[in-house]
Fold these 4 entries.
Entry 1:
Amino acid sequence: MSSLLTSAQLQLLLALCFMAGEHQLALAEKLLNSSLSSSEVDELCELISNEFLINGIEESFEPNGYGLELELLLDAVNRGHGQGR
């Protein structure tokens, strides 16, 4: 699935996983090996979605620049849903 991500998206995902802890870092490693299960893809999507809700929207509930990056990352991760099973 990592081939579906741009280099910037991969770096963003790795940064989010690093901040989230050891388990998420293991998911990032599995992502690089294209060996994520469907439930693990769901975990990554939840991580991205939570970050979006905390830091990716303005008071008007519109996405800010960072939020737009997160939306694209979420789309890219979701494209890989079902791969690596």
Entry 2:
Amino acid sequence: MAMQMYSIMNDFGPLPAFCDTYGSNSSPSSSQPESPSTSDDYDVENGQQTGFCGQVSTKPVSPVVMKKRRLAANARERRRMQNLNKAFDRLRHVLPSLGNDRQLSKYETLQMAQTYINALYDLLR
């Protein structure tokens, strides 16, 4: 239950009223992991771990841990962009082509998809 609330709170940002009422949870407990699981838990600029309500922990983070976190974040972002590009490729294959020899840009693909959907909608009316 505490981890669910922790996850929900990180999704919506800090809530000062909640933090003032229930206090901070900056010291690690047995129900929370030692290392932060989201970017909201970590201040990259200062290399410091933040607690539940955004207070900075006094425990320093080693450069090795910082590097591992950065590499993991880079891998997640690379995977996310690969999935996005694959989705655009799939969308390009279902859109009618104009006979161009070049691939449509992402913006052009979205414009073409919008036009195509509107044309199909008009056909159904």
Entry 3:
Amino acid sequence: MKIIALLVLANLGGIALSNKLYEEHDRLVTWRLRNIVDKYKYLATGNSEFSQWIEKINNVAAQRSLEARLDTESEFKQYDKQRQLLEDNITQRLNTLRSLISLRKGGKRCVRFYQHQENELKNAYKLSNQRKQELYINNGMECPARPEIQGYDYDYYGGY
């Protein structure tokens, strides 16, 4: 009888300990979500996709479901990692473009071509990740060589 009583008490103690760990984990996840909101709420201004993420995190942080909070935190981390990578790539390309423009690489036509790319990319920071990716790919080309078309004075590249 004493053994059964000890086993029951040990089991109850385990439940209490388990519940305490759960509550601590729950508080920690909520704290991390609140930190994300505090850290990014001003950086997201002007970027509707980013702002929606911050609003979603803020709303989920107030929910009771630990699973929902953990899922949202994980999804945001993936989104944010991609966002930062794309923005780093855009910054690198802008630096390259500025260098090509200042060196007048390829002459006047190519300078205009690079200036057009630069303008497209400067505005990309406030766009969705998908649109950032598209603009980065579309504006990552080198200035194409002017084609030699005999008998025609035709600007194949639209004036660049």
Entry 4:
Amino acid sequence: MQSQQMIQALAQITSDFRRGDLDAAYQGYRDLFSSPAFNQGNADDRRHALRQLVYTQGAPTQFTRTMRVAHDAALGPIQALIAEQDDPADRELLRVCKTRLT
């Protein structure tokens, strides 16, 4: 995925959050992470998008179905980053994402 496409997707997700449309925001994450082109993007760009989801400020403490689906969609891309770069920060990102899903 070209970084411009990712920037646009993240801008829309941020706009959805600001409008209070959490379902649309989390569906945006799901769509982004499920895109076959996402894993072809720059590792730093992918990492940024994944961190933005996992460490969302102001997210509800009770997961909705849409939130759960977005986090589930993030697991594969996080694991792909770990396989590519074996960065300890990515392993921590995976741990936090899995913890939030339990």
